[in-house]
Specification:
The protein is an alpha+beta fold. It contains four helices and 32 strands. A hairpin with a 5-residue loop joins strand 9 and strand 10.
Length: 489
């Protein structure tokens, strides 16, 4: 009896456990279904909103309207609360124990479909205003390059006679090269000094690659031209202001008593007359002028190769006495025989320029008047004079007749505006059209400022030779093995 009771009691406990587990399972299923239904409703609402937005976007593109259409999405259905089923009446299991079964949850109500919003009629698009042209920015000047050469002094205009001479002076800082340029009167041409030498064959351009350039034998065609110097370094170049060349009157050897083109320049009212005197004799040359401050007498050799002022002439002829070579009237005394055929003229100057008189011939009695001709040395060898390297003109070679088949040679080769190489030697005739040297002195001049320089790299007893071929001078330097070709300067 007791055993049967224990078995019965155990069976009842198992029934209760089974009923409890079934109830928990049914409740979990019900909660999961409710969550799934709620998620479906939310997804359906989102899809409806996306469909409405896509529809409005398509309509906007067709109308090319930039306006935005406001769409009010339909209200989403509120998820229905799941109905809780009433528990069924309790039944009686075996043994009289009451058991309450768990009811199934009611099916979830489907959400009402969301209607697409009616399209909102949009107004006609307003034409876009014409684009306003943005103002052009004002260009800002580039800052000055502090490394460029700086011009400290510009050249000034010069007034000279035909065939006369003048110099243009400049000063600079921070430059390596200098090149002078010539500008035509109408401004249509700008040529460097090498091309100017070809344009005006009779013009002598001295140091067209230096800070100070000298022009000699200026032709009348150069009147109205301007010159300027271009200083350069590795950073760029800077130009000086231009200087005007004014050519007036006749040059040395012609003279004129007419008023010069410059009304402020001196005016010659009387030219000197030629004189015939005996050797050791005396004569006077008389002139008259207006508007002059300075007078200076000049002497011209018979062949025209020399033009010396009265101070230089006193050194050329030590026995000649020159009285008042700085006045309008000059007297010559103890005239040597060698003065036969020379000419004299007076140059009057003031702040506005200068004017030359006509030349007067000196004839020594008993001596025939010599015919102007090139010097014997120049005619015999063809070396005498000035030569310039034919490509850039930086090398300048000057031959001066010394006598007995010898010539003094001076060579200057500018590597920059502040440095140049120099050579000095005596060349002797070895055979026809060839001159050789064995005493070449070489050095380098480096300028520390505008007027001072240092000497370095000196060497002595250099050898080489010069010869002329096809009217060009060839210089062979034995130390470097280099051959330099020059043309007449």
């Amino acid at each position: 009896m007791l055993t049967a009771y224990r078995i019965r009691n155990h069976e009842i406990k198992n029934i209760y456990v089974e009923m409890f587990c079934n109830q928990e399972y049914n409740m979990s299923i019900s909660i999961l279904l409710r969550e799934v239904n709620a998620m479906k409703k939310k997804l359906l609402a989102v899809l409806c909103i996306l469909l409405a937005l896509l529809t409005l976007s398509a309509c906007g593109k067709k109308k090319n309207n930039a306006e935005t259409v406001t769409v009010t999405p339909a209200e989403t259905a509120t998820p229905a609360q799941p109905a809780t089923a009433e528990p069924a009446p309790a039944g009686t299991s075996e043994g009289g124990v009451a058991i309450t079964p768990t009811s199934q949850p009611a099916p979830a109500q489907a959400p009402a479909p969301t209607l697409a919003p009616e399209p909102v009629q949009t107004p006609a698009p307003t034409p876009a205003p014409a684009p306003t042209q943005a103002p052009k920015p004002t260009p800002t000047a580039a800052p000055a390059n502090s490394k460029l050469p700086v011009v400290k002094k510009d050249p000034t205009g010069e007034t000279v006679n035909v065939g006369g001479k003048c110099q243009f002076v400049t000063r600079y800082e921070n430059a390596k090269w200098a090149v002078w340029h010539f500008v035509s009167p109408d401004g249509s041409r700008d040529i460097d000094y090498l091309k100017a030498a070809e344009e005006f064959p009779t013009l002598k351009i001295i140091d067209g690659y230096g800070k100070d350039m000298t022009l000699d034998k200026i032709p009348a065609e150069l009147n109205g031209w301007k010159v300027y110097c271009r200083f350069s370094n590795d950073s760029g170049s800077t130009d000086t202001a231009s200087a005007l060349i004014t050519v007036k009157g006749a040059g040395t050897g012609s003279g004129s008593t007419a008023a010069p083109s410059n009304p402020n320049a001196p005016v010659i009212t009387k030219d000197p007359g030629s004189e015939i005197v005996a050797a050791g004799g005396k004569c006077q040359f008389v002139t008259r002028y207006e508007n002059a401050k300075i007078a200076e007498w000049h002497f011209v050799s018979p062949d025209g190769s020399k033009d010396l002022d009265y101070l230089q002439m006193a050194k050329e002829f030590p026995t000649l006495k020159i009285i008042k070579g700085y006045s309008k009237d000059m007297t010559l005394d103890n005239i040597p025989m060698e003065l036969n055929g020379w000419k004299v003229y007076c140059r009057f100057s003031n702040d506005s320029g200068s004017t030359d008189t006509k030349t007067a011939l000196i004839t020594i009695k008993g001596q025939p008047t010599p015919t102007p001709a090139p010097s014997a040395a120049a005619k015999r060898q063809g070396f005498e004079g000035r030569w310039a390297e034919e490509i850039a003109g930086r090398c300048q070679i000057t031959f001066t007749y010394k006598g007995e088949g010898s010539m003094n040679v001076d060579i200057s080769w500018s590597s920059s505006a502040w440095q140049r190489s120099r050579w000095a030697m005596t060349a002797n005739v070895s055979k026809k059209d060839i001159m050789e040297y064995t005493d070449g002195h070489y050095w380098v001049e480096t300028y520390t400022d505008e007027s001072h320089y240092t000497v370095s790299d000196e060497s002595y007893n250099g050898t080489g030779r010069f010869f002329i071929q096809d009217d060009k001078l060839h210089w062979v330097n034995d130390q470097t093995g280099q051959e330099t070709v020059c043309k007449p300067a």
